[in-house]
Amino acid sequence: MQPFTQQVIDIIRAIPSGKVMTYGQIAATAGSPRGARQVVRILHTMSDKHGLPWHRVINAKGEIAITEDESRFLQKIILEEEGIKTNEAGRIDLSVHRYNG
DNA sequence: GCCATGGCTAGTA
DNA sequence: GCCATGGCTAGTA
């Protein structure tokens, strides 16, 4: 496992319930401001194994970015259970819910 | 070659 | 809506 990957995993783990971070924000915190897509890949391949709170990661617009329908719906439900609601436009208010690593 | 991005711009209203 | 981006992995040799 590469240092960047380990960093990203640690950062995602530390996001508390009721808060979210963006892909780019996590990448930047891990020391690679352009590495947003790596965060995507890491979530994809390592969420299960490492028990990551994958649902607390959204895109920079405040949207749920998952493309697969079932998981997308699941993410919305879990976030709601944690007190995070999406507005009519499907957006989450980052000014309220963003976690600053 | 993948990818659940992000940021900028052209084009509409 | 377009496209540059980058760290890693699956798959081949």
Automatic annotation (TrEMBL):
Give the domain of life: Bacteria
Any one Gene Ontology molecular-function term assigned to this protein's record: methyltransferase activity
UniProt keyword terms in alphabetical order:
DNA damage, Methyltransferase, Transferase
Q: Does the keyword Glycosyltransferase apply?
A: no
SUPFAM superfamilies in alphabetical order: Methylated DNA-protein cysteine methyltransferase, C-terminal domain
Q: What InterPro entries does the record point to?
A: ATL_DNA_repair, MethylDNA_cys_MeTrfase_DNA-bd, MethylDNA_cys_MeTrfase_DNAb, WH-like_DNA-bd_sf
Which GO terms of type biological process are on file? DNA repair; methylation
Span of domain Methylated-DNA-[protein]-cysteine S-methyltransferase DNA binding: 3-84
Matches recorded under CDD domains: ATase
DNA damage listed as a keyword? yes
The protein's name in its UniProt record: DNA methyltransferase
- Which classification does the entry list for the species? Bacteria, Bacillati, Bacillota, Bacilli, Bacillales
